[in-house]
Design a protein that fits this description.
Blueprint lengths: L1 H31 L7 H21 L4 H27 L3
Helix pairs in contact: 1-3, 2-3
Length: 94
């Protein structure tokens, strides 16, 4: 039982840390629409990695809830930033 509690605490700490790491960039990008210093391949690969971890979390069932929830939120943040970056770099009329 102690092992499971430790596992859960570590999972939630990791989840909260990763989400709080992504949210400021996503919020700032949505607020300002500035993406000059953002590398497009970085957020593309982060979204792909997030999707893969979501699949893994789903496959693990109840034990993978941390992977799934965390990577769902971070993948949404990455997709938003990626979308704004694509718009700014390729679709916006100058």
């Amino acid at each position: 039982m102690e092992h499971q509690v430790f596992f859960n605490v570590i999972g939630w700490v990791a989840s909260i840390s990763l989400i709080l790491g992504y949210l400021p960039q996503a919020i700032e990008t949505m607020r300002t629409r500035r993406t000059d210093g953002i590398a497009l391949p970085t957020f593309l690969m982060m979204a792909v990695g997030g999707i893969c971890f979501m699949i893994q979390g789903f496959m693990l069932g109840r034990d993978g809830i941390f992977l799934f929830v965390t990577n769902f939120i971070t993948t949404v943040c990455s997709a938003i930033i990626f979308g704004i970056k694509i718009y700014n770099d390729y679709l916006r009329k100058s």
